Amino acid sequence: MEKRVMTDGKRRRGLMVASAVLGGVLVLSACSGDGDSAKSGGGADGSKKSQAQVDEAAAKETSKARITISPKNGATNVGINDDAKVTVADGTLTEVVLTTAAGQSVQGTLAADGKSWKPDGQLERSTTYKIAATAKDADGLEAHENASFTTVSPENSFIGYFTPEDGSTVGVGMPVSINFNKEITDRKAVQSAITVSSTSGQEVVGHWFNSKRLDFRPDQYWQEGSTVTLKMELDGVEGADGVYGVQKKTVTFKIGRNQVSTVDAETKTMTVTQDGKTIKTIPISAGSPETPTYNGQMVISEKFKETRMNGATVGFTDDDGKGEYDIKDVPHAMRLSTSGTFIHGNYWGADSIFGKVNTSHGCVGLNDAQGANDPNQPGAWFYDNSIVGDVVIVMNSKDTTIKPDNGLNGWNMSWADWKAGSAV
Known about the structure:
Elements: H1 2-31, H2 51-59, E1 66-70, E2 75-78, E3 85-89, E4 92-100, E5 105-106, E6 108-110, E7 116-119, E8 128-136, E9 142-151, E10 157-158, E11 160-163, E12 169-170, E13 176-180, H3 187-192, E14 194-198, E15 204-210, E16 213-218, E17 227-233, E18 238-240, E19 243-245, E20 248-255, E21 259-264, E22 269-274, E23 277-283, E24 296-299, E25 302-310, E26 326-335, E27 342-346, E28 364-367, H4 378-384, E29 391-395, H5 415-420
Parallel strand pairs: 2-9, 10-19, 12-20, 21-29, 27-28
Antiparallel strand pairs: 1-3, 3-7, 4-5, 4-8, 6-7, 8-9, 11-13, 13-16, 14-17, 15-16, 17-20, 18-19, 21-22, 22-23, 24-29, 25-26, 26-27
Pathway: Cell wall biogenesis; peptidoglycan biosynthesis
Pfam families: Big_10, YkuD
Protein name: Ig-like domain-containing protein
């Protein structure tokens, strides 16, 4: 009996040792995955590699190319012009794919050296985009990077509507006038992102008339024959709290001959000069004593061969609320103010009033023919020989001087007052 007890004890201890060994084998098998000696840290000869050796081996399999995507992943209120781009260091880009969340692809251009990529055109507002970029290093090992971003929404962005148009030729009085579609509270930031320069070398200064309008002009009229350049670098500029600009634009326009026309409401004549020399004197009929024409320097902002003029649109109504006049075919009309001052042809007045009597509701009238087809009429001649931006000066009228912001008429402000309205 004693002999059998000892045998049982040894047997139990043997089973325990075997179990422990098997347990160890199971644990090692679980940690070593598929049993690959290189991945488990073991060498071909069964020796164990150091952690440094393992890291070094892994590093040799990783691309050295480092891709940077702008904007950062998850960015919002992203600009639509230059914010999206991809660059790489220690490698070259091999593929960049930009798509909308809906899967629509956006064309882009990879730089000749393979170091950068950017979209070919302006992105859409309020749109989520995804970028997937691939690059290779000198050893041909690939690196990948992905990001997504959302562009600024119309509600969180502003744009500026500008005049004159790109490529146009205008008169010497034409200011650069920008009207923003949102209130601008950081005027300095916005104005700092806009430059206006002239080949004449004239100093050009901006003036804020209100939170939405910014005009630029020199001290004196633009020099004839010069070229003016407007640059708007507003993309990403915060004009108000959480409201960003989206424009990046360059506009150039030329200044034509120096034409200034002076209307004398007292003598009822207009003298047209080019480069300081009188080229024509035209009899006119200005505003009546009850509705005189504004005095001051006014700039032609629009031209219409024929247009309708209804007194109700500018406050001239009868007892029934109808316009005191409604002429549907006013010939050769050129706007001088936002409030409705025009210099235009007049076919309904007798020939005898021109140069003799002031009869209008505030406009300057020139003798003309109905239909605007008689080139020999004074109204037709002046229309044909005028361009947007020409200056018309009214003097000796019984009215006040026109306000500088009523039309493109900032010339009625002193240079010191003009500069005082600059935010930079």
